[in-house]
Amino acid sequence: MEQRFAGKRVLVAGGTGGLGRSVSLAFLEEGATVLVTYRSQEEFDALKNAGALEVYATITHPVLCGPAIERLKKSDIKELIVTDTIPIPKEKMIPKIKVLSVSSLLGEAIKRIHDEESISVLFS
What we know:
Elements: E1 9-12, H1 18-29, E2 33-36, H2 41-49, E3 55-59, H3 68-74, E4 77-83, E5 97-100, H4 103-114
């Protein structure tokens, strides 16, 4: 059987339940690598129980307060991808955390807004 989406990546918001789960499974059957969003421990567990090979998480502003680092260390999350919008203290930096810089993007956006230029080109 030909897999129409072999080698393609698909993002499914709400892909852990209901219609989103059905859509995710359909894409998987067609050969796609499926990325889904989740917001709770139950949805995370559902992903793992459904056979997810790897789970990555993202946070825009990595506050990481309280037991966050210990929970991350113990979790099945392979990598937590964060932005540098706030600094992460050295004692909280662990190998599972990858920081992406958004400074040049924000700087260019501020410059363009100040010069009354469009910022849409930054996001295309």
